[in-house]
Amino acid sequence: MPHEIVSFDGEATKGYVGKLVAKTVEETLNALLDEEADQLVNAGRYERTDERQAYRGGHYRRRLVTGAGELELSVPKLRGATSATKIIERYRRRESSVEEAMMETCPAGVSTRRIEDEGEILWGSGVSKGTVPSLNQKAFAKIEERRTRPLTCAYPYACVDGTYLKKNWGGTYESVAVLIAIGANEDGYREVIGCAEGYTESADSWREFLLSLRERGLRGVRMVTGDKSAGMMGALAEVFPEAPCQRCTVHFYRNALSKVPARRRKRVATQLKAIHAQESLGAGIRKAEEVARELETSKLADAAKVIREGVAETLAYARFPMEHWRRIRTNNGIERLNREVKWRTNAVGSFPDGRSAMMLAAARCEYVADGTWGKRRCLDISLLDHWDERSVSTE
Length: 395
Hints:
Elements: H1 10-41, E1 55-66, E2 69-79, H2 96-108, H3 112-123, H4 131-147, E3 157-169, E4 172-184, E5 190-198, H5 203-215, E6 223-226, H6 230-239, E7 245-247, H7 249-257, H8 265-275, H9 281-297, H10 301-314, H11 325-328, H12 332-346, E8 350-351, H13 354-369, H14 372-375
Parallel strand pairs: 3-6, 3-8, 6-7
Antiparallel strand pairs: 1-2, 3-4, 4-5
């Protein structure tokens, strides 16, 4: 049997390397502080010259939390010098990268209490109870700036939807609506272009939200996708009358299938999907009429009525390039954001007011948008350059 000659302890090596890095960073910062003190004094330690501008008065200890761990620095004391050190910002106890990492954990879904516990593990130093809320305020200030940023480019396709969160109002819990809008920009990438609080998904709330988007510079909208909310539809027709509204096909299927017995829903769902699998707008309309007649023959007149009354709203996408159809006929992209918002806000429960709910929802949307969701090109917008919607035949 071969004997084990060499063994490698990965955990011990990792700990040793971590301590070595922290020690090296600490020694480097202390050397920089001493060198800076020499330049301010205009003389080295214990050096007697006529050009001396100040005198050393020993050192004081100062702790600094960095990505390498908690360091103990020896900051020189100077007598007669008024300039503070530029190596470390005054009153700063944590490195900027550490604070930025802590600021990003809240939108990512980490609770405040857990951030306090994880600080001890990650950086070797805990944080006070007031530190995390203070950092969150800085993070929310950046989120607010981004949420209200001017929209400088055109967004040919937009998608709007709303979700409800719980808030505490006068000792009772009520629902508050958070209205969200995303858009595909000129390069084909998705962006979160709007997030605002609305008491309900009423026409007034939607109108105010859409007007704020237009005031911020939203332009070039050729189609808007959403569910069939009465307040939303009326506000869209008023604020963006030139952009047709595409009713989400998934919501249309749910409405139609609610009129069908459970044992027959699978077959009817296949028929409904066949409507939106046609190669043109006219073919989709003809297929919808064919499906409606079949449902009437099968004694499903209510489902046939839903199809006849609503299918035209679900075929607005067929007036645009076929390569875009799969992406623009549903609001699945914004439903993904709604799930993320719900997942993050359910951990909180109820909010003290609507603004706090809206800010956390906006923070979560921005967090998702900064990931692969917003960095993956989803549409080739150049296909619209020579596309004429009027040339689409409904025959």
